[in-house]
Amino acid sequence: MKFAIIAAGEGSRLSQEGVTLPKPLVRIGGEAMIDRLLRIFAANDADEIVVIVNRLHPETEHHLRLLQAGSWRGRLRIVVKTTPSSMHSFFEISPFLSDAPFCLTTVDTIFREEEFADYIEQFRRSTADGLMAVTDFIDDEKPLYVGTDNDLNITGFFDENKDCQYISGGIYCLQPQAIETLRRCVASGQSRMRNFQRQLVKDGLALRAHVFSKILDVDHATDIRKAESFLSHAG
To answer: Domain 2-232 has what CATH class?
Structure first.
């Protein structure tokens, strides 16, 4: 199984609020967010980890190149490209994800490690085309609501709450056939990950939800403290 990290965003909100490091190198509890994900993915038996970074912050690429030349030799693939959206970043790394099941997330996603391990194990056992992380904790400026039935089969993704219990956590475990949906989305001019998720449902892929107690995104300086508090009480 492969893992992938989208770390190509500009992190403009953090920089405007006085955070000088590129977002992937921002430390949560003393550990850079990109390093935290790499460590967790390795602990969950990643065959390969694919990371996309932009050209605007060469410090991030340099950091990863050092890891790639050292303890991560042979397991870390780095793509360097500035893209207009997360979905375009996903598209750029998709050729490396089309031959195996994979887990994809953005670099600023914060979750409990034990819950993530259970999530990956459930995906490995599942016959579904995708297992999407969801949570009932809402701390997002524009949450994506997830419709589910009683068995946690996903019925839709919505910008407004349509009696939905959960929102998307921004972590996606998918089978390789999802890449074809992604290619069509990009070809038709789509640019948002939520539209890709909607298209997965329209294409008839069997998606299930996996519930996390809480998932946070680090978009603002105040989110760093929230994430540290959350993880300090984890477990």
So the answer is: alpha beta
